[in-house]
């Protein structure tokens, strides 16, 4: 078909292409949300007329606009490289795959080439979905889905910005730098996966280790989260605090746990064993602090005893200036109230 006729066909269907892009963006988000994978982003686009014109001129093979399979494109960016294959399984199970036009550019990458590429699918809706009224108008329309990790995406975007598409276009003195950088990005992708897996494994084992060898567990968000929600010592003091201050308790979330970390480290509490010792040693003062609270039946997180422990550790310095420095550094209480709060804590012990 002549170039202008193809472009006219594109223009006459542009609204349909835009609707397809929006609808498929929504569908892919729904499909991914039903899995355990949380992608970094899902974006869609419709190819611009000028870009289509260049493609037609370059390929010189299209007889019908339906043969151009990337007018509508979706890009799924994962946080981790191993999620690319997990997302690919979902795409393969939910769409008809045009195998002849789909390519895993990761597998196609020559060992001696620089470049950090992605998984490209050309797909269409399965019959059971395209028969639904909301998708019927998209029946048999092909579109592209690209899947890549966020680091793969970073490479591709910078490479595109630089303007070189193959190694032979790059001046020889610069080619080695490209290769080294591609290797670093690939290593970084692998290491992020390893770090994620190590953290997941740590989460699984930390609760048991806290019970057996608490001195080996440092103060971090995960250990505080597990300790505050499961420790008998914390539970006992928390319940006493809640009774004295008229408070209700709920499980601690990880955002609150992360705040405890910086407070405890300020006072040199480095392990769960240290924390438990400080709680037991300062229970009397924690409860004394709770007596001055008018909770009015408010709900607070488990680990409220740890929160008051920070204040007791500040109070035990017996130095109003140092107490005020702690309150300022940690942004505790309203700024205009910190002077009077420091005065209160300095007289608490």
Automatic annotation (TrEMBL):
SUPFAM superfamilies: Nucleotidyltransferase (SSF81301). Pfam families: RelA_SpoT (PF04607). Coiled coil: none annotated. It comes from the Bacteria. One of its GO terms (biological process) is guanosine tetraphosphate metabolic process. Residues 44-170 form the RelA/SpoT domain. PANTHER family: GTP PYROPHOSPHATASE-RELATED, RELA_SPOT DOMAIN-CONTAINING PROTEIN. This is RelA/SpoT domain-containing protein. The lineage of its organism: Bacteria, Pseudomonadati, Pseudomonadota, Gammaproteobacteria, Alteromonadales.
